Amino acid sequence: MSPVPRNRLARLVDSGTFTTVIVAVILANALVLALGTYESIDERVGPTLHLINDLCFGVFVVELALRIASYGRRPWNFFRSGWNVFDFVVIGSVFVPGVRENATLLRIARLARLMRVVRLLPDLRVLLLGVWRSVPPLLSVAGITAALLFVYGMIGWLMFADALPKEWGNIGRAMLTLFVMLTLENFPVYMDQGMSVHPWSWIYFVTFILVAAFIVLNVLIGIVLNSMEEAREAERRKAVWERHPERGGPLVDLDASAPVVERIALLRSALDELEVELSAGHARPASEDASAVRGVG
In this structure, how many other beta carbons lie within 10 angstroms of the beta carbon of residue 74? Predict the structure, then answer.
Protein backbone atom coordinates (compact mmCIF):
# COMPACT_ATOMS: atom_id res chain seq x y z
CA MET A 1 0.00 0.00 0.00
CA SER A 2 1.48 3.34 -1.05
CA PRO A 3 2.01 5.94 1.67
CA VAL A 4 -0.57 8.70 1.99
CA PRO A 5 0.88 12.05 0.92
CA ARG A 6 1.56 14.43 3.76
CA ASN A 7 -0.61 17.21 2.39
CA ARG A 8 -3.63 14.95 1.77
CA LEU A 9 -3.57 13.42 5.25
CA ALA A 10 -2.93 16.83 6.80
CA ARG A 11 -5.97 18.24 5.01
CA LEU A 12 -8.00 15.33 6.37
CA VAL A 13 -7.06 15.78 10.04
CA ASP A 14 -7.37 19.58 9.80
CA SER A 15 -10.72 19.52 8.01
CA GLY A 16 -13.87 20.75 9.66
CA THR A 17 -15.62 17.41 9.19
CA PHE A 18 -12.85 15.50 10.95
CA THR A 19 -12.86 17.98 13.84
CA THR A 20 -16.65 17.80 14.12
CA VAL A 21 -16.54 14.00 14.33
CA ILE A 22 -13.90 14.05 17.06
CA VAL A 23 -15.76 16.70 19.05
CA ALA A 24 -18.92 14.59 18.78
CA VAL A 25 -17.03 11.55 20.08
CA ILE A 26 -15.66 13.61 22.99
CA LEU A 27 -19.17 14.80 23.89
CA ALA A 28 -20.48 11.24 23.63
CA ASN A 29 -17.68 10.10 25.92
CA ALA A 30 -18.65 12.84 28.39
CA LEU A 31 -22.27 11.68 28.30
CA VAL A 32 -21.22 8.08 28.97
CA LEU A 33 -19.11 9.16 31.94
CA ALA A 34 -22.00 11.23 33.30
CA LEU A 35 -24.48 8.35 32.98
CA GLY A 36 -22.05 6.09 34.81
CA THR A 37 -22.41 8.22 37.95
CA TYR A 38 -26.04 7.07 38.38
CA GLU A 39 -26.14 3.75 40.20
CA SER A 40 -29.49 2.70 38.72
CA ILE A 41 -28.29 3.30 35.15
CA ASP A 42 -24.91 1.70 35.79
CA GLU A 43 -26.58 -1.43 37.16
CA ARG A 44 -28.82 -1.80 34.08
CA VAL A 45 -26.50 -0.83 31.21
CA GLY A 46 -23.06 -0.70 32.87
CA PRO A 47 -21.38 -3.12 30.41
CA THR A 48 -22.78 -1.17 27.46
CA LEU A 49 -21.43 2.09 28.86
CA HIS A 50 -18.00 0.52 29.30
CA LEU A 51 -18.09 -0.76 25.73
CA ILE A 52 -19.01 2.67 24.36
CA ASN A 53 -16.24 4.23 26.44
CA ASP A 54 -13.71 1.76 25.00
CA LEU A 55 -14.94 2.51 21.47
CA CYS A 56 -14.50 6.24 22.08
CA PHE A 57 -10.99 5.58 23.33
CA GLY A 58 -10.29 3.55 20.19
CA VAL A 59 -11.39 6.50 18.05
CA PHE A 60 -9.04 8.78 20.01
CA VAL A 61 -6.12 6.40 19.45
CA VAL A 62 -6.81 6.29 15.71
CA GLU A 63 -7.11 10.07 15.60
CA LEU A 64 -3.79 10.47 17.40
CA ALA A 65 -2.11 8.02 15.01
CA LEU A 66 -3.47 9.90 11.99
CA ARG A 67 -2.24 13.23 13.32
CA ILE A 68 1.23 11.84 13.90
CA ALA A 69 1.25 10.15 10.48
CA SER A 70 0.22 13.43 8.82
CA TYR A 71 3.74 14.72 9.47
CA GLY A 72 5.10 12.17 7.03
CA ARG A 73 8.76 11.34 7.45
CA ARG A 74 9.13 13.87 10.29
CA PRO A 75 6.72 12.60 12.94
CA TRP A 76 8.76 14.26 15.68
CA ASN A 77 7.42 17.62 14.48
CA PHE A 78 4.11 16.53 15.98
CA PHE A 79 5.58 17.10 19.44
CA ARG A 80 6.62 20.69 18.69
CA SER A 81 3.09 21.80 19.64
CA GLY A 82 2.15 21.87 23.29
CA TRP A 83 -1.43 20.87 22.47
CA ASN A 84 -0.17 17.82 20.58
CA VAL A 85 1.96 16.81 23.56
CA PHE A 86 -1.10 17.20 25.77
CA ASP A 87 -3.10 14.91 23.47
CA PHE A 88 -0.33 12.32 23.44
CA VAL A 89 0.00 12.30 27.24
CA VAL A 90 -3.76 12.11 27.82
CA ILE A 91 -4.28 9.26 25.35
CA GLY A 92 -1.07 7.43 26.14
CA SER A 93 -1.51 7.58 29.92
CA VAL A 94 -4.00 4.71 29.74
CA PHE A 95 -1.22 2.41 28.50
CA VAL A 96 1.05 3.25 31.44
CA PRO A 97 1.35 0.23 33.79
CA GLY A 98 -0.77 0.70 36.89
CA VAL A 99 -3.17 3.28 35.46
CA ARG A 100 -5.69 0.86 33.95
CA GLU A 101 -5.60 -1.27 37.11
CA ASN A 102 -6.26 1.78 39.33
CA ALA A 103 -9.90 2.86 39.12
CA THR A 104 -9.23 6.38 40.39
CA LEU A 105 -6.35 7.06 37.98
CA LEU A 106 -8.35 5.58 35.12
CA ARG A 107 -11.27 7.91 35.84
CA ILE A 108 -8.92 10.88 35.96
CA ALA A 109 -7.43 9.86 32.60
CA ARG A 110 -10.92 9.58 31.13
CA LEU A 111 -11.87 13.02 32.45
CA ALA A 112 -8.66 14.48 31.03
CA ARG A 113 -9.71 13.27 27.58
CA LEU A 114 -12.69 15.62 27.76
CA MET A 115 -10.31 18.58 28.00
CA ARG A 116 -9.16 17.82 24.46
CA VAL A 117 -12.21 19.68 23.21
CA VAL A 118 -10.26 22.87 24.02
CA ARG A 119 -7.51 21.79 21.64
CA LEU A 120 -9.98 21.11 18.81
CA LEU A 121 -12.06 24.30 19.10
CA PRO A 122 -10.03 27.41 18.13
CA ASP A 123 -12.17 29.87 20.09
CA LEU A 124 -11.79 27.91 23.31
CA ARG A 125 -8.07 27.56 22.65
CA VAL A 126 -7.69 31.31 22.18
CA LEU A 127 -9.74 31.92 25.34
CA LEU A 128 -7.52 29.62 27.42
CA LEU A 129 -4.34 31.06 25.92
CA GLY A 130 -5.60 34.58 26.62
CA VAL A 131 -6.27 33.75 30.25
CA TRP A 132 -2.79 32.22 30.56
CA ARG A 133 -1.11 35.27 29.00
CA SER A 134 -2.98 37.57 31.39
CA VAL A 135 -1.57 35.86 34.51
CA PRO A 136 1.71 37.90 34.83
CA PRO A 137 0.05 41.35 34.64
CA LEU A 138 -2.79 40.13 36.83
CA LEU A 139 -0.25 39.25 39.52
CA SER A 140 0.95 42.87 39.52
CA VAL A 141 -2.63 44.14 39.84
CA ALA A 142 -3.22 41.63 42.62
CA GLY A 143 -0.25 43.08 44.50
CA ILE A 144 -1.65 46.60 44.14
CA THR A 145 -5.08 45.40 45.27
CA ALA A 146 -3.56 43.69 48.32
CA ALA A 147 -1.80 46.94 49.23
CA LEU A 148 -5.07 48.86 48.92
CA LEU A 149 -6.87 46.32 51.06
CA PHE A 150 -4.15 46.60 53.71
CA VAL A 151 -4.19 50.41 53.82
CA TYR A 152 -7.99 50.65 53.87
CA GLY A 153 -8.11 47.73 56.30
CA MET A 154 -5.87 49.56 58.78
CA ILE A 155 -8.02 52.68 58.49
CA GLY A 156 -11.19 50.62 58.96
CA TRP A 157 -9.67 48.89 62.00
CA LEU A 158 -8.86 52.27 63.57
CA MET A 159 -12.37 53.58 62.91
CA PHE A 160 -14.64 50.60 63.63
CA ALA A 161 -12.72 47.97 65.64
CA ASP A 162 -14.33 48.82 68.97
CA ALA A 163 -17.91 49.14 67.73
CA LEU A 164 -17.87 46.41 65.05
CA PRO A 165 -15.32 43.79 66.13
CA LYS A 166 -16.88 41.03 64.03
CA GLU A 167 -16.12 42.84 60.76
CA TRP A 168 -13.22 45.13 61.76
CA GLY A 169 -11.75 43.58 64.94
CA ASN A 170 -8.29 43.00 63.41
CA ILE A 171 -6.48 43.58 60.15
CA GLY A 172 -7.40 40.13 58.84
CA ARG A 173 -11.12 40.60 59.40
CA ALA A 174 -10.96 44.15 58.05
CA MET A 175 -9.24 43.03 54.84
CA LEU A 176 -11.71 40.17 54.46
CA THR A 177 -14.63 42.57 54.83
CA LEU A 178 -13.13 44.88 52.22
CA PHE A 179 -12.50 41.93 49.89
CA VAL A 180 -16.18 41.01 50.12
CA MET A 181 -17.07 44.62 49.36
CA LEU A 182 -14.97 44.42 46.17
CA THR A 183 -17.82 42.36 44.71
CA LEU A 184 -20.31 44.98 46.02
CA GLU A 185 -21.79 42.22 48.17
CA ASN A 186 -23.59 43.73 51.22
CA PHE A 187 -21.92 47.07 50.55
CA PRO A 188 -24.97 49.10 51.72
CA VAL A 189 -25.10 47.04 54.93
CA TYR A 190 -21.44 47.66 55.74
CA MET A 191 -21.75 51.37 54.98
CA ASP A 192 -24.86 51.73 57.17
CA GLN A 193 -23.05 50.00 60.02
CA GLY A 194 -20.05 52.30 59.57
CA MET A 195 -22.18 55.43 59.42
CA SER A 196 -23.89 54.40 62.65
CA VAL A 197 -20.46 54.67 64.29
CA HIS A 198 -19.13 57.71 62.40
CA PRO A 199 -21.68 59.64 60.28
CA TRP A 200 -18.95 60.93 57.98
CA SER A 201 -17.52 57.43 57.33
CA TRP A 202 -19.40 57.30 54.01
CA ILE A 203 -16.34 59.05 52.55
CA TYR A 204 -14.25 56.01 53.49
CA PHE A 205 -16.61 53.52 51.86
CA VAL A 206 -17.28 55.56 48.72
CA THR A 207 -13.59 56.21 48.03
CA PHE A 208 -12.80 52.52 48.55
CA ILE A 209 -15.46 51.49 46.04
CA LEU A 210 -14.30 54.09 43.52
CA VAL A 211 -10.62 53.17 43.80
CA ALA A 212 -10.65 49.45 44.52
CA ALA A 213 -13.87 48.16 43.00
CA PHE A 214 -14.38 50.29 39.90
CA ILE A 215 -10.83 51.21 38.87
CA VAL A 216 -9.09 47.95 39.81
CA LEU A 217 -11.80 45.70 38.37
CA ASN A 218 -11.87 47.68 35.14
CA VAL A 219 -8.09 47.38 34.89
CA LEU A 220 -8.43 43.62 35.35
CA ILE A 221 -11.01 43.44 32.58
CA GLY A 222 -8.79 45.51 30.30
CA ILE A 223 -5.81 43.21 30.92
CA VAL A 224 -7.84 40.11 30.11
CA LEU A 225 -9.27 41.64 26.92
CA ASN A 226 -5.82 42.75 25.78
CA SER A 227 -4.43 39.28 26.46
CA MET A 228 -7.27 37.76 24.44
CA GLU A 229 -6.39 39.97 21.50
CA GLU A 230 -2.71 39.04 21.77
CA ALA A 231 -3.63 35.36 21.94
CA ARG A 232 -5.82 35.64 18.85
CA GLU A 233 -3.01 37.35 16.95
CA ALA A 234 -0.54 34.67 18.08
CA GLU A 235 -2.89 31.92 16.87
CA ARG A 236 -3.29 33.66 13.51
CA ARG A 237 0.45 34.03 13.00
CA LYS A 238 1.01 30.45 14.11
CA ALA A 239 -1.51 29.27 11.49
CA VAL A 240 0.50 31.05 8.79
CA TRP A 241 3.71 29.31 9.75
CA GLU A 242 2.02 25.94 10.06
CA ARG A 243 0.75 26.34 6.49
CA HIS A 244 4.29 27.13 5.32
CA PRO A 245 6.71 25.05 7.42
CA GLU A 246 9.39 25.36 4.77
CA ARG A 247 10.04 28.93 5.90
CA GLY A 248 11.79 27.80 9.02
CA GLY A 249 11.11 28.03 12.74
CA PRO A 250 8.11 29.62 14.42
CA LEU A 251 7.63 33.33 14.75
CA VAL A 252 9.32 34.97 17.68
CA ASP A 253 8.03 38.05 19.46
CA LEU A 254 10.01 41.05 18.36
CA ASP A 255 11.09 43.83 20.67
CA ALA A 256 8.89 46.74 19.70
CA SER A 257 10.99 49.21 21.73
CA ALA A 258 13.30 49.79 18.76
CA PRO A 259 11.60 51.85 16.02
CA VAL A 260 13.21 49.96 13.12
CA VAL A 261 12.36 46.58 14.57
CA GLU A 262 8.81 47.73 15.22
CA ARG A 263 8.39 48.73 11.57
CA ILE A 264 9.73 45.37 10.44
CA ALA A 265 7.33 43.59 12.79
CA LEU A 266 4.36 45.59 11.50
CA LEU A 267 5.34 44.94 7.90
CA ARG A 268 5.73 41.22 8.54
CA SER A 269 2.37 41.11 10.30
CA ALA A 270 0.68 42.84 7.37
CA LEU A 271 2.28 40.45 4.89
CA ASP A 272 1.32 37.42 7.00
CA GLU A 273 -2.26 38.62 7.18
CA LEU A 274 -2.37 39.10 3.41
CA GLU A 275 -0.95 35.61 2.91
CA VAL A 276 -3.62 34.06 5.14
CA GLU A 277 -6.36 35.80 3.19
CA LEU A 278 -4.84 34.81 -0.14
CA SER A 279 -4.58 31.17 0.92
CA ALA A 280 -8.22 31.26 2.03
CA GLY A 281 -9.28 32.84 -1.26
CA HIS A 282 -10.44 36.07 0.34
CA ALA A 283 -7.74 38.55 -0.56
CA ARG A 284 -8.24 42.19 0.31
CA PRO A 285 -8.27 44.87 -2.39
CA ALA A 286 -4.82 45.96 -3.47
CA SER A 287 -5.52 49.55 -2.38
CA GLU A 288 -5.95 48.44 1.27
CA ASP A 289 -2.70 46.46 1.25
CA ALA A 290 -0.84 49.36 -0.33
CA SER A 291 -2.16 51.77 2.29
CA ALA A 292 -1.14 49.35 5.05
CA VAL A 293 2.43 49.17 3.72
CA ARG A 294 2.57 52.98 3.39
CA GLY A 295 1.44 53.27 6.99
CA VAL A 296 4.32 51.07 8.11
CA GLY A 297 6.82 53.11 6.20
Answer: 10
Domain boundaries, the chain: 6-120, 122-248, 254-297
Does the global pTM surpass 0.70? no
Cα separation of 60 and 130, whole Å? Answer: 27
Separation in Å, CA 245 to CA 24, 74, 119, 161, 165: 30, 12, 20, 66, 65
CB count in 10 Å sphere of residue 295: 10
Are 102 and 24 in contact by the 8 Å Cβ rule? The answer is no
Q: How confident is the model at residue 67, as a pLDDT?
A: 87
Is the Cβ–Cβ distance between 117 and 139 less than 8 Å? no
Domain 6-120 fold: Four Helix Bundle (Hemerythrin (Met), subunit A) (1.20.120)
DSSP state of 210: I
CATH class for domain 122-248? mainly alpha
Which of the 8 DSSP states describes residue 258?
S
Residue pLDDT, tens place only, 63-96:
889 888 888 778 888 888 777 888 888 888 878 7
Residues 221-257: pLDDT tens digits? 777 777 777 767 766 666 555 554 444 444 444 444 4
Helix runs in 95-216, H state only: 103-114, 116-120, 122-133, 135-160, 165-168, 171-182, 187-197, 202-208
Q: String of b and e for 197-209 (b: at least 16 CB within 10 Å)?
A: eeeebeebbeebb
CB 168 within 8 A of CB 174: yes
Q: How far apart are CA 138 and CA 144, in angstroms?
A: 10
